[in-house]
Amino acid sequence: MKRFLLSAVVVLALGFVGQPLMSYDAGGSTAAPYLQIPMGARATGMGEAFSGIADDTEAMYYNPGGLTQVDGTAASFMHMQGFGGINYEHLAVAAPAENLGIDVWGTVGISYTNVNMDNVQRSVSNVADTVDYPGGGWPGNPGDFSQAYWDHNFQFGYSASVFGLSYAWQATKSFSLGATAKYMHEELDDKNGNGFAVDAGMFINSPLMPGIGAGLVLQNVGTSPLDGPLPMQLRTGLGYKIDHPFSPSYYSVDELNLGLDIVLPISPAGQPVDANVGMEYKRWFGNNAGALRVGYRYPDDLGSTAGLTAGGGYSFDFIGAVVSLDYAFVPYGDLGVSQRIAVSGIFGGKPRPTPTAPKAAQAQGVQAVAGDRSAQIYWRPNTDEVQGYNLYMAYKPAGPWYKLNKLPLKTTSQHVGSLYNGVTTYFYVAAVSKPAGPGGPSGESVKSVIVGIVPRPGGSMQVAPAAPALPPMPSAAPAPRPAAAAPAAKPAAAPALPPLPGAAPAAKPAAASPALPPLPGAPPALPPLP
Questions:
Q1: What is the CATH number of domain 2-332?
Q2: pLDDT tens per residue across span 316-354
Q3: DSSP 244-265
Q4: C-beta of residue 345 within 8 angstroms of C-beta of residue 75
Q5: CATH 2.40.160, the chain: domain bounds
Q6: Which among 101, 134, 328, 484 could bridge 41 via Cys, Cβ 3.0 to 4.6 Å?
Q7: pTM for the model
Q8: If DSSP codes are grouped into helix, strand and coil, which group holds residue 384?
Q9: Which residues are CB-contacts of 62 (< 8 A; sequence separation ≥ 6)?
């Protein structure tokens, strides 16, 4: 009786209020209640539905088979302030064996957990107290509860430490096995002892079912440090990861994780089956990310709202590592709230894939009208949403091509001036897509058809889209192109124009004359002829 009541007090203080009440109704209790404290804040915020996800150091508790998903050196630390003045600290490190210089195939992890509670008031007597009780002995049997004994304020302490060693092996591309060996040392009142336990689990993540994970774990098989059986249980779960649920596939900036765990108590027998569900939504903002989590654990004897869990997190780059700060909020009805804070980091993990720029549809209906030392370019509006259009120019169909605008054009026509009369000039239009998110990249469409025009004095003639190599205009063929003819005819405009193809170097006009004003949003001067 004494041992059971002391253990129940500890379990209640640890925050697992529902489970001891169920154990009491079933006529049994478990030893080492700290083995049922979930590590980390992330999975706790998701209602402890994590065995089918298990992709960080918390896998050492929920499913050691999932440790193979840790692709860098990961470390985490959690602190929890529970009921009755209990303190709980947990530290874990996991990494692929090759990162640690260990010549084995797989992922290894180590963990340490410490639980302590001081100044717990005793509610029953023991033999020592009957001797030391003032007045010459305790008027009652050892182990009996008495209000007078409680009022005397006898106290005791409790502490426990757990050292864990985990290993996970990727048996196939879609199947992994893992185990965690745990050494326990426990001190309760005037007793202490050592124990050993093992968790064994498997994780399945088949390429035939992208995003779906499944886990099966047998937990706490071993010997207890003190009286009573260990809380042995079978945990099975499913996880579903949805990439870019609210963002386009070419620019994935978010993900959604869904989890479901079923926990079947084995020892002691007669306890109800638990069902846990949870959700995590994560969104990236550049190299940083924020997460929101919610979950529910059923059943809970403290009321429907006591099964709720919630939490959040924020991650950022810090000197080459991805650091995460996580928080979990776990209410327990009238008893109060348990809060957990955790910090974790991944060093040398795989970087997130660089988002690809979206592609706009090809610009259609591109035409050009030649004028006196100018051209007017037209095209039809794109049917999909675009940020604007880029206009390119070249003196040869094969290029090199020069973009005439700095910012995307918002219209579907553009006037180009300061061209050479009698010189064939080519143009094409590229549509520019809208960025997928704040600061996200944008992409151009493929080239439109290439159109070529020959500017001429006093006339305006529409030219059909050119083939890759456009022949010269008939009216331009009889007249040769003397090197100095164009600069002599238009001395003021020559400095702003690129030189004609094949022109003599001496024919270049002086750079002192003023240049014509640039296009709206265009560079100050046109590119030179090759």
A1: 2.40.160
A2: 988 888 999 999 998 887 777 888 999 999 988 666 666
A3: STTS-GGG--EEEEEEEEEEEE
A4: yes
A5: 2-332
A6: 328
A7: 0.65
A8: coil
A9: 38, 43, 48, 50, 51, 53, 54, 215, 217, 235, 237, 261
